[in-house]
Amino acid sequence: MTGKILEAPFSASQPPSNSQAHPSDPRNNLPKPPSSFERYNYLNPPRYWAYLGFVASCLVLVSSSWFLWRTHFWIYGIYIVLTSAWTFPHFLFVIFSKNFNPAHHIAMVQQTLEKGHYPGVDVFIPTCGENIEIIENTLYHASKLVYDNLNIYILDDGASTEVERLTRKYAFNYVSRPNRGHMKKAGNLLYGYHRSQGDYILVLDADFAVAPLGLQHLVPWMEQNPKTAIVQTPQYFSTDASLAWSARGAAYCQEVFYRVIQPARDYLGQSAICVGTNALYRRQALAEIGGFYQVEASEDVHNGVALISKGWNIKYLPILIARGLCPDTAQGLFKQHYRWCSGSMRLITSSFFWNSSMAVWQKLIYLCGACYYPATGLSVPAALLQLGVMLLWLQDDVKWYVAFLFLPKVLFVYLIMPLWNQSNWGLHSIKSAITFAWAYLIALGDLATQKTEGWIATGASKTSARYQLFRQLLSVYCVCNLLLLVPTFNEEWYNFLPIAASHGFSLYLSWDLLNHDR
């Protein structure tokens, strides 16, 4: 391998057009790695949308505060506080953040590679019952990695003979632990950690296709700063029109997090979070916390907190090194977000987090981020409560022109963000967001009653009892929404038209979600 970047990067002053993006693999919709043009697609996006989002959130806060004052339902105030704690800080983070310097990145990578020193890198690909074609696609692209000192390990918690056969086919290391399932993915990674010895560990989920030059963009950041424990890159997803609505919708919804929120958190507070896949870990740093942190859900975020507490740094690098797939069913999407919410809320309410040696401002940034889950989950009962109270007891306060208060939010959600996002917007995006909200609400209820469902791999076929509960509750929600729309048909129907249109649209999407799982 030569000591230079093998694909010429774009000029820092003239990034490529998005129209040059590499298409998804037409063969079974399997992902391909980001092309050399796509690699920089997430760099320095415009931030104009954050200003409108901030204004829209302020107006919604005014409406919510009026409802609280008018009804004296003080428990509703919890929802207002959580929503404000999530939205306002993150809009400000985005507004006051600065751009990433691609010219510095390219020069630093080139300089490091020219030294001809290649520390050992282990690639971990944990599997647990995912589709065999998806796993083979991941292994195929991992075999194309260009790096001189590399070992690839398939950590199979499914004990699959097919996965073992594929591993042998590509001459990788097959590892299947005797206590499969213990501590879920965290336990699987720890087992691999003790059976490898590279200086760095690249973790790739089983449905991600890594670019051949991915490591050449990551390793130099580790070599440049010996206090960097993790170099985290974005999760980037296929959004081909032939994919299931859940896969396309989830990709759309997550883009803003990886394009602007993670870079903003990295710049303002060195508090970008580790999201597990597409991340390069320093073995020396992991050794200080006993390897990968052992917890059944959200082990990635726990790893980050544990390492920061030991004085290490997490670097967020907005370079696309791999492309993956979002869940292709509503159940898979639900299970994934249920797990994320459960793990994050357990972290943020744990003595491990609050007793850690993280700086106060870092804890506050993590806390603001975690507020996303309860704020989104509680939006479901909050919307139903507000609709019921307004239509049954406060009809005289319902005026059509109040809808103008929500116009900036409507423009923000249905016009500004779809234009800003690279992923295609559509009803699939809203249906995915509805699924997220219900997953968080049910996860919060389970956490409160200590009945959290056991970890189920996103790609596994096992049916989730909590997903069945979601479908039952969504059916009840649809019936309640339908009944509450009846009072809008009266002599002052024009005053109720905005409410009827908004909740009628929500009812339609919820009903469609019940009838179309994929």
Automatic annotation (TrEMBL):
Compartments where located: Membrane
Statement: the UniProt record of this protein carries the keyword tRNA processing: no
Disordered: region residues: 1-30
Bilayer-crossing regions: 48-69, 76-96, 372-393, 400-420, 426-448, 469-487
Domain Glycosyltransferase 2-like stretches: 123-289
Topology of the protein relative to the lipid bilayer: Multi-pass membrane protein
Matching Pfam families: Glycos_transf_2 (PF00535)
Keywords per UniProt: Glycosyltransferase, Membrane, Transferase, Transmembrane, Transmembrane helix
Biased composition (Polar residues): 11-22
GO molecular function, one term: glycosyltransferase activity
Name the UniProt record assigns to this protein: Glycosyltransferase 2-like domain-containing protein
Organism listed in the record: Prochlorothrix hollandica PCC 9006 = CALU 1027
